Amino acid sequence: MKIAVISDTHFGYGWGTERENDSFEQAEEAIKKAIELKADIILMPGDIFDSRIPRQEVMEKAMRTLSIALHSNPTNVKVDTFSRDISPRTFSGVPIIAIHGTHERRGKGLVNPVKELEAANFLVALHCERIVLSKDGEKIAIHGMGGVPESYALDVLKQWNPKPLPNMFNILVLHQSFKEYIYEEAAFLSLDDMPSGFDLIINGHIHWHDILEKNGKKLLLPGSTITTQIRKGEAEKPKGFCMLDTATNNIEFFPLSSQRKVLYIDLSFEGEDASTATRKIKEKISSVLNTQFNKKPLLRVKISGTIKTGATIDRKEILDSFKDKAIISFDDVTTVTDFKRKIGLLREMQKSKMSVDEMGIAILRKNLEEAGYQGPDASKLLSLLAEGDIEKAIEFIYKNAPS
Ligand SMILES: [Mn+2]
């Protein structure tokens, strides 16, 4: 069977900005291309949405985009064995098998948007379960575990204990950080921890494409279809999706043509005054924008070193001068020491590729710690706050406050 792996579409990313359609356009291109390439199944390893409670406008666009797969010619893939009843509507076109990611994860007992899409027959949402699919006598098993907090990932995986089934192609799908890619403290899993016997392990979450083979285990990172964070190393790597052929275990990467070009410039100053620095930045920007682009490129400007005290670099002037040519963002590390210390934590968290949720928990945990809080884990409190249960959150704090 041919499986298109389309990950981290982040529907709704940049909503309200000039990039609000990017996530949908890029996912649409991927889905259409997958259909053209005769994909039998589309596999979505999490972060389909950018947030766990997407606004209605985002949900509507997401459904329209995914329905392209639903309404395409049927691929004759059928459910062989599964623990739940799935409507035949889900299998009326190219079926989508998915897991939720970090951005969609919600507390116990709450419904995440991927699960909601299952209810509307757009896809099958797996979490610590497997589905066996068949087509013309060939069977494959997809074992899926949705995103869980990194520190629990190994325990959840061990408890679930997925085992490959005999006489078929077995895929294990996850959405976690891996030590091989994300720096140690933020990742608790490595390829060595993965159960053996799977033909392929597919992991969402990490936004660049790669394939890693070690000790008879094969890990595929499909990468995201959209640029959400601009890093130097990532700028050269295009976004796309993968096509897997289960007959050969061959994987092919297809870059998307609808994506914006990502540009990265790095400038360092040594005591220049602000206006000289601003001029130099503008010159550098002009030089990299000196070509034609299909869509406005994303340009990351990294500034480091020291600027003469008394004035700051005029970012607004820079943004205004290029607003028709590029979407510019700054990574300015020429700021004063105190501010640097405060944003230090945030930067560290950003580097560790935490989701907004995880960053929220980390900040909350740190603040609670400083306030002398010794109660249960902060994630419970954060989920109460996120759900708007202020009363319950206050009650939770009082109940667990030191007396
Ligand atoms: Mn993601």
Shape category = globular
> Which ligands occur here?
manganese (II) ion
Parts with pLDDT < 50 across at least 5 consecutive residues: none
Helix content: 25-40%
Query: What is the terminal-to-terminal distance?
Result: 62 Å
CATH superfamily of the largest domain: Metallo-dependent phosphatases
What fold name goes in the CATH topology slot of the largest domain? Purple Acid Phosphatase, chain A, domain 2
Oligomer: single chain
Question: What about the largest sheet?
Answer: 7 strands, mixed
Folded structure, characterized:
This protein is α/β, with parallel strands linked by helices and 403 residues long. The chain folds into three domains: 2-255, Metallo-dependent phosphatases (Purple Acid Phosphatase, chain A, domain 2); 262-337, no CATH class; 355-400, no CATH class. It is 29% helix and 23% strand. The chain has a seven-stranded mixed β-sheet, with no helix packed on it. The mean pLDDT is 90. Manganese (II) ion is lined by residues 8, 47, 101, 103, 205, 207, 224.
Strand and helix layout:
Elements: E1 2-5, H1 22-36, E2 41-45, H2 56-70, E3 78-81, E4 96-99, H3 113-119, E5 124-125, E6 129-135, E7 138-144, H4 153-160, E8 169-174, E9 200-203, E10 210-214, E11 217-221, E12 240-245, E13 250-255, E14 262-272, H5 274-288, E15 298-307, H6 315-321, E16 327-332, H7 337-351, H8 356-370, H9 378-386, H10 390-400
Parallel strand pairs: 1-2, 2-4, 4-5, 7-8, 8-9, 9-11, 14-15, 15-16
Antiparallel strand pairs: 1-12, 3-6, 6-7, 10-11, 12-13
Helix pairs in contact: 1-2, 9-10
This protein binds manganese (II) ion (MN).
